[in-house]
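> tool_call: predict_assembly(chains=two)
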Amino acid sequence: MPASKNTHAENGDPHAFLPLTPAVFHILLALADGERHGYSIMREVEVYTNGQLKLGATTLYRSIRQMLAAGLIIESDERPDSTLDDERRRYYRLSDLGRQVALAEMQRLDRLMAVARGKRLSLNQAAPGITTGMTMGGL
Amino acid sequence: MSVPPPSSSSHPSQPAPKPWSVAATLHVYRMLLGMYPRGFRAAYGADVLQVFRQRCGDAYRERGAAGVMRLWLPAIVDLLIGAVADYCCLAVEAWRRSMSTDRVRSSAITVFCAYIAFVLAGIGFQKMSEYEDFTQAAKAHTLIGVSFNVILFGSGIALLAVLGGGLPLAFASLRYALSARRTDILLLFGVPAIAAGALIGYGAIIMAVMRGQQLQPLHIAFLHIAFLGLIVVLILGAIASAAAVSLAVKRSQIDGNLFYFARIPAAITTLTMLAICLATIVWGLGLRFDAPQLFNGDGGLVATSTAANWFGIVTVMTIATLVAMAGVARSFNMPRHMRATVA
C-alpha cells in the first residue's frame, strides 16, 4: 500500500482500503451476520459462493492477521457456548471500520456493475462455465 | 464406501483415531507449515492446523481418502504462495526499517561531525579574541559586545545539546560493544582518549623544550611553528575522534528510538550553530566598522591577519552549519512509513 494510502487508512477513511482483495472482502461478508471462528468463516464463504471459492487455511489466517492489524475485525472474548465449542478457538467479529469498509467496497462494486450493464454486456454472452450464481457469488 | 456426513463447523473436533490418510496429510502439512516465518507460526500456527484438520475430517467424511487427497494440491499451493508472500513482506519491512534507521543514524552522525568542525573554528575564534584589545573592544562597542556574548552563550547551549543527544547514543553503543564483545567498537572509543593524550603530550614537549629559554627571534619562530603543529595535531585528533566515534555508533545495534530522540538536540545544536555563525559575522563586521585598527591588524592566530582569520573561521562555521542543517532537515523529512518503522 502506498504511503499516502496508508496515511488515509490510519485516519480511518474506509475508501483508503479499497479495492479489497477477494479474501478480505469475503471474510468481511462472512462476519457481517455475527462473530465466527476461522473454520466457520471458511465454510460460510464456501457455502455462499457455491463452492467456487475455497479459502486456504494460511490465506485465511494471513488475511485475518492483516485485518486485525488494520482494525477491520476484532478478536472476540465472548463464546457462543463454551460447552459446545473448543476453548482454544478464536472468534472474530466486524469492527465499525470493517463494516464501513465492506459497505464502501459494495458501493464500489455497484458502480462497477452499473458501468458493466451500460456496456450492454449480456449474461447470455458469458464464456462457458460462467454462471449467474458464480457472478453473484463473486460479488 | 460408506461415508459419514460432514461435521458441524461449530462443534469441537472429536478425539477419535484419525484415518491414515488424514494423519499423513496433517503430518506433511505440519512440516510444510514450518516454512513460515516464526512470528506467523507462533501467532496462528495452531489455528491454521486446527482449521486444516477440520477440513481434512470433513473431506474424509464426504469422500473418504480420495477426498483428503484432493486437498493436497490446493493446500500445498496455498502454503507455498503464503510463505513466499510472508517472507517478501518481512523483507520489505526489514528494508524499510534499515532505510529509516540508517537515515536518522546518518543524520545524527552528520550533525555531530559538523559540530566538531564548528568547534574547531570556534577554538580559533576563541584564541583570536582572547587578547585584551578584543575584550576591550567588546566592552566599548555594543554590537561587538552583544555578538560576542551570543557566541559565548550559544557555545554553552550547543555543547549541552550535543551532550544531551550524543551521550545516550555513546552509552548505548558502549553497552552494545560490551555485551556483544565487540573489541573493534571499544577500540574506536579509545581514539578520542589517544587524540587528547597526543595533544597534551605535544604541548608538554614544547613547554619542556622552551622552559628557561629566553625569547630570541629564533625561539619565537620555533614557537610559531610549534603552535601551528599544535593546531594540526588538534585538527587531526578532532577528525580522527569524530570519525572513530561516528564509526562506533554506526557499527552498533542501537534502538532506533534513541536516534529518533536525538533529532531534537541535533536541531537545537544546529539552530545554535546558525546563531553563533551569524553572531561571528556580526562581530567581524562590527570590528571592521568600530575598531578598524584591530580588524586590519595582525591579531589572528600566529600573528596573522585578523581579517583573514575571521573570514576563514566564518567560512568553516558557515559550511559546518549548512551541513548540519541538511542533516537535520533530512531526519525531519522522513516519509510517514519510515517514521512508523523507526518508532
